[in-house]
Amino acid sequence: MSDAPQVSVECQVNGSTVVLRGHPMDRLLAVLRLQLGLTGTKEGCGEGECGACSVLIDGKLVNSCLVPLLHVRHTSITTIEGIATGDRLHAVQEAFIAHGGAQCGICTPGMVLAAVSLLARNPEPSLDDVRTALAGNLCRCTGYMRIFTSVLQACRQ
Amino acid sequence: MRSFLPAFDLHEPADLPDALGILAREPGQWRPFAGGTDLMVLLEAGKLPPGRYLSLWHLEPLRGITVGDDEIVLGALTTYTEVMESAALRSECPLLCRAAAETGGVATQNRGTIGGNIANASPAADTPPALLIYDAMVDLVSVRGVRRVPYDRFHLGYKQMDMARDELIQAVRVRRGRSNWLQSWRKVGTRRAQAISKLCFAGALEASGDIVHDVRIAFGSVAPTVVRAAQAEAAVRGRPLDGDTIAASTAALARDISPIDDLRSTASYRLRVAQNLLQQFLSNG
Asked: In the prediction, which pLDDT does B264 show?
């Protein structure tokens, strides 16, 4: 359809400047995966309930399935691909490996981003803080206990 | 099923006057779009009406929390996270912070807005009962100027609001000076995180000696709109908080609300729990 509205949106993704193109209501989730090939961001429910598509926009945790492309102009986006520094994994990623925080892996990128966002706000969270911070991220494998342990252990690194 | 995107537009106005001009020139042709936490869900489900949407997210005059002498003004785009982080709201309007904390998870709280929660007009929204406790006023802005409406008269019926087609919610004003009132907020849902309410209660009362001087009682999910329970309030105002008063108030509550059966709960459960929550609140006074 030639008359469908299209926008070009300049933003930063994992530190690089990119220009994203599409319908202004395209979901950030789809744009990241299809235009940039950043498939670490997962689609779970597609309705903001499960947190699998979590990314950071200007440091704030969001569900990328609910963010329209138009709203990321001039923002800085961090996906799971931007959490490690070169070959050095983030303390949260190391802790998920060390403590069995990941099983099938679909929820893991969102869990890691939610945990990274928590630790940025609160470097010494209680178990209750961790549970609240991850309440928007669903996991169908682990039963959550190993995830909570991983996040708490990451704070001690 | 996913919506057909070419049937939609999302337009970014240059600034607030531009947005108001667009709404005035083409009233009814545009729907406001703020954080997208509700509209994007509907879009994905194929339930969002096709048409033109006006993006408000970048309009700075609609942002920010301002603390005045008698009131706190929340810009319409104030997010749940900003509500929870405001020291003034935490001390003066704790029920509003509780409601924000129990609305969705962190990601929703970072994008969902107070103006959106009002304009979406869901009877199951969680911040509106708290807003009623603090005698909230809604500022509506259009090219014609700003109009102020008491929030307890803003919702006229299911998804019906006292809001013209060219108006936007600019801000919500909540009253200060109630930190010494007894205050309580309760959400009843299938689980604590993420779940939409079966019902939601907010109450506040000021008593000295045994006599209740003033009281606010509000509920969500028990009527076509969020409601202030005027008859339950009248039954306790100016009276001692004894068993007779509490019984009269919980009985009167049945006339204030009109719960229904739906996918989340039943009318009889909602009535019973609403009365129990009110009784528990008044018994602690």
From this structure: 87
Q: Do the Cβ atoms of B238 and B210 come closer than 8 Å?
A: no
Question: Are A107 and A53 a contacting pair, CB within 8 Å?
Answer: no
CA-closest candidate to residue B106, choices A151, A77, A57: A57
Q: What is the pLDDT of residues B18-58, one digit of tens each?
A: 999 999 999 999 999 999 999 999 999 999 999 999 999 99
Strand partners, B146: B141
B40·A3 Cβ contact <8 A: no
Judge: domain A91-155, CATH 3.40.718.10: no
B45 contacts A60? CB cut-off 8 A: no
To which H or E segment does residue B184 belong? strand B182-188
Q: Is the pLDDT of residue A1 over 50?
A: no
Residues 33-52 of B with CB under 8 A from A: 33, 36-37, 40-41, 43-45
**Domain with residues B184-283, CATH architecture:** 2-Layer Sandwich (3.30)
Q: Which helix (H) or strand (E) segment is B147 a member of?
A: strand B145-150
Where along chain B do its domains lie?
Answer: 5-54, 63-174, 184-283
CB-based contact B143:B24 (threshold 8 Å): yes
Question: Fold for domain A7-82?
Answer: Ubiquitin-like (UB roll) (3.10.20)
Burial A68-107 (b: 16+ CB within 10 A, else e): bbbbbbebbbbbbbbbeeeeeebbbbbbbeebebbeeebb
ipTM: 0.96
Amino acid letter, residue A94: E
Whether B104 has its CB under 8 Å from any CB of chain A: the answer is yes
pLDDT digits (tens, 9 = 90+) for A18-77: 999 999 999 999 999 999 999 999 999 999 999 999 999 999 999 999 999 999 999 999
Q: Which fold has domain B63-174?
A: 3.30.465
> What CA–CA distance (Å, rounded) separates A111 from B107?
12
Distance (Å, whole) CA B255 – CA B232: 8
B98-113 pLDDT, tens digit each: 999 999 999 999 999 9
